[in-house]
# Entry
Amino acid sequence: MAQQLTATNDFVIKFANVNGSGSASANELFARAILRMGVPVSPRNIFPSNIQGLPTWYEVRVSEAGYLGRRGGLDMIVAMNPETWQRDLAEVAPGGYLFYDSTRPLPPEMFRDDLTSIGVPLTEICNATYSDPRQRQLFKNIIYVGALSALMDIDPAVIEALFSEQFKGKEALIDKNVAALNLGRDWVQKNLDPDICKLKVAPADAVGDRIFMEGNAASALGCVYGGATVCAWYPITPSSSVAEAFESYCRKFRKEPESGKSKYAVIQSEDELASIGMVIGAGWNGARAFTSTSGPGVSLMTEFIGLAYFAEIPAVIVNVQRGGPSTGMPTRTQQADILSCAYASNGDTKHVLLFPEDPRECFDHSAAALDLADRLQTPVFVMSDLDIGMNRRLCAPLEWDDSRKLDRGKVMTADELEAGREFGRYLDVDGDGIPYRTLPGTHPSRGAFFTRGTTKNRYARYSEEGADYIENMERLVRKFDTAKSQVPQPVLRRAEADTRYGVLYFGSTAPSMDEALDRLGNEGLHVNAMRLRAFPFPDSVAEFIAAHDRVFLVEQNRDGQMRMLLCNELEIDPARLVPVLHYDGTPITARFIHGAIRDRLAQYQVVPLERAVS
Amino acid sequence: MTYITKPKLHHPSLKRNAVGFTRRDYEGQVSTLCAGCGHDSISASIVQSCYEMAIEPHRVAKLSGIGCSSKTPTYFLGASHGFNTVHGRMPSVLTGAHLANRELIYMGVSGDGDSASIGLGQFAHVMRRGVNMVYIVMNNGVYGLTKGQFSATADKGSVAKKGAVNNDAGIDLASMAILMGASFVARSFSGDKAQLVPLIKAAMSHPGAAILDVISPCVAFNNHKGSTRSYDYVRHHNEALNRLDVITGSAPITAEYEPGAMVEVEQPNGTTLRLRKISADYDPSDKAAALAHIQEQDNVGEIATGLLYLASGRQDLHANLDTVETPLNRLGEADLCPGSAALEAINKGLR
Ligand SMILES: Cc1ncc(C[n+]2csc(CCOP(=O)(O)OP(=O)(O)O)c2C)c(N)n1
Ligand code: SF4
Ligand SMILES: [Mg+2]
# Structure
């Protein structure tokens, strides 16, 4: 028998369930309870493209050190799905644990000698207590949470407090849930050695004031705070909950008190062609508007995105990326729409992309995107992904400065027109490439213009003149240059010692990257790191690359799309950018990044610092 | 292509309407369409309607798709903002624009290729949403701008200029609009101003999704013998249903029409549509009868024109969404941003 895994506040547990069995809320309860004990957790839903019946998993990493990336490997499996039993079991590290329903005796081949098997007769306990099949199903989940809490020393009072919050005002429900929880706890305490499980949770103080939120809800809230009034969307995993959350936040915050009328409009459109069309129509007419979608939706939107680029209309697209191409891996995560978004549409186009690392940045970037779109009069993408979008993630609390104004950009007013100020819709008056616009209906006789996707001159008149075309296209490049200083700037993390090696990363890779950097640093392998937060790339990105002999580029796609974009836009020698690519649809892990960079550095014969000194 | 700017000098004798504009003020740039194109006649009818209705030009937003027809917004209402969007997807842009500012008058202009082929989906959905607009299809049965291919409204059996025969069933946009939930559905002919102008006015005063399917011969590609969208064909097969005038609350406009039975239809916004029935028993409020009538006429090779269907009591998109009276594009921070205290409460709930 392998040595039993022993850990306090540092392990990975995975729940294997059947989709639609009501396990999701019980599993989240488990994660929240640990969080309430002051120990950081990062849960991840691993779910099929299915509503009921297929396997689904919920993986919880418990890490007092605060590592929120996926760790890789598994210390305990809660095996509630016979169908995936064998593969679930195979994933557990030697010395790990199998938690299962022992109501019926199982043949020996269903177990592993090197694991500790913890059987609790869940079905038997359930059937003895409940007669209604739905209750049996739901409370079975709570009973296993109870059993686990007893095994791992999770404070039951914390769970009871969570029940009281969740079912506030429904005392009967609270009592029922507490009773189910205790059924599991009592059985374990009566029948098992308290030390059978050596994975324990102990109270700590490592959570602080952080919040536990899904990126999609945060993006939605960012759109509310950023002043979006129109949301047009078409359902697609993993982005649907952005629009749904926007609508529910609006119901709370955007009703006119006297009349109950809505200060927002949400349209579930007929397809993504229509959703982006509505966003563009609203943006043209001066309302802040956004859509949320995922890869296939962006593909459909591209012609319109080109129109918004060329006709210079604000639009915000929250792209919650999933595995592509085509329908790809609809319920798995990737960062594989970088190029399709950066250059979306025919002709020479470039679009502003923002890369949030967690829900806090989903909030910040979504609000910022609405300002940027108005200021730059162009489409702006918020490039979230399934990993941060659909999982609750611990992150800094959301903040808002009440003195902040919605920056509507260069909109010429009726008074300015009346005063005789010159208006040319595509006239660059101050060299930043951004022209003034007017909104329809502004002035009875001045400032009207015709918006079109065809070539035009500075005064928005149709033109097929090459010179007019080039002037316009060059101004658009100038405008894109202006964007460099307005987008969120990259974040630099310097290694403890000087190094010729650097690493670039972005988006949901951040927590795993942080952990990998710690590990490399502990091993004396020093790498400077820069987290990209936007395209176009501010000058500091080129400077960072120039300052290192080799720069690793960590991304979650097959082709190294960010690397291509950097090479193309900054004219960087591809040999200097070393791809570190992970794209099987699971979130990238610190183990993977650490291993890949360590092996590469060994190839370059980098001697770890401590060893060189000793 | 060159543009001859029209002299904007107002001749003192030009008559001004109630809001002080002359007919000139409703014109746009010089058309670059083929001489004799039906679309130009429709533009002229739009100019006349807006002038006569005394609409301030800047209160109108005109949106179109792509095609010869969709170019026309450049040729009328030069003082209005316009938006030439992408092929077949003007309806979504118009919907978004309307959501942003409910106070303007929205005019969508499209072609039969634009609306019945590439844009059939958006056409259907903008009708069922009840977007308050006038949607004009300049229907010539061909793709004019791409030089004469059949469009989806071309009748089965019609013959193209180069001799090809259309074997596919034609889509009737008027029936389709009725089925999809449009509340004002009319058909007319570009060459029949006397019928078209009142219909445009009625559509503009209708507070909901109003569509005008206007047959508009393409003199370059679809005005030959064998075409069912030619001037001659339409003149001979046009069965006009009713003549109407519009009475807006403030300025009644009446016109002389041949005598006949008359019905007055009160609209939800207080305007009255006065229908002079030619076909004495035609009742435009009966949806099933309207569909049947279009079909019956089609069976005998006739095109039913006039106000085919008028629904009462249907709500428009803003009413359905229950949006505030103030246009959304005018709401500021105080209305839109819940502020830091609310955010702190949200943070609290997420710990
Ligand atoms: C996505 C896309 N596909 C094809 C075209 C080419 N195109 C331009 S206009 C047109 C047909 C227009 O026909 P219709 O709407 O009937 O207008 P008409 O010219 O007859 O008035 C086509 C196919 C285009 N502009 N965009
Ligand atoms: S091609 Fe046909 S539709 Fe186009 S402008 Fe000429 S006549 Fe009109
Ligand atoms: Mg046509």
The radius of gyration of chain B is 21 Å. Residues B 33-34, 37, 39, 68, 140, 144-145, 218-221 surround iron/sulfur cluster (ligand 2) (CB under 6 Å). Chain B has a mean pLDDT of 86.
